[in-house]
Amino acid sequence: MNKKRWIALGIAAVLFFVSLGFRLMSSVFTADVESVMDIPQQKFQEEVIEKGTGNKIAILELDGVIQDISTSSLLNSGGYNHERFLEKLEHVGQDTSVDGVILRVNTPGGGVVESDEIHDKVVELQKEYDKPVYVSMGNTAASGGYYISAAADKIVAHPATLTGSIGVIMENFNFAELADEYGVEFNTIKSGKFKDIMSQSRKMTEEEHNILQRMVDDMYADFVQVIVEGRDMSESKVRELGDGRVYTGKQAADNGLVDALGSKEDTIAMMKKDFDWANAKVVKYKGGFELNQFLGGTVKSMFGKEADLAALQELLRQSAGPRAMYLYSK
Question: Which residues are catalytic?
Fold first, then answer.
């Protein structure tokens, strides 16, 4: 074999191993590392907020958009983790040492299904585990955040909290006119008349709009019913308040959407007073050690912007399709 062929073979080998390396890194970026390595996560840790020797109150924090978007991915290691939060609710329910639960809600809302799953867990805490649930609202507890809060035994908001935004939204972009202007043509092959409903490549028909509007109306009716049952409020009153607008905490207290104004500390004091738990121990349930979160930070520090871009691409890929949301969007 002559020298040129040896060089060509060497280049081919280098390209092969480089390609293999990129594929390996791509797998690492999207894999559930705990599953691959079969390393169990630690159970939830308790941080003592107030010492006490009597009953125990557990605080759980719901922070961020309520959306299940493969939170086990290595590059999506931060932010709200839906599966983990549901596990935390289940854990605090089964923990016989916990007598009461305070949800610290700071979210603009999120997915219809995810919000409903949390709502059901709150109801389960009350009915199956016989534990009172209070909500302490942070900066924002709107739409899906209020949907979850409606089931609570007591809702406490800061006077400046943004809450309400009762309703459902479904939206997407339409590039039809822009595509026509630049001569871009879309080819769509579909099995049924409405398979490409909410297509970005053409104008929505009136029939399609009516189909989607009925879906949104049905989901809105579910939202209304959750508030009717949770707040003991008439349907007509809920629909009057639930036109999509947001309210300040003070306005929400005036119109009956929240019970009291105050901070997280005030909410703790209210629960202690309401149940005569003067010497209650107050703890905050944290997530414990998670391998994805640890390695995710390491990977991002190593690969910088490339890692951030990969995470963004994964987020866009998983949330690309239009979906109904209980979401307050500014």
Answer: 143, 195
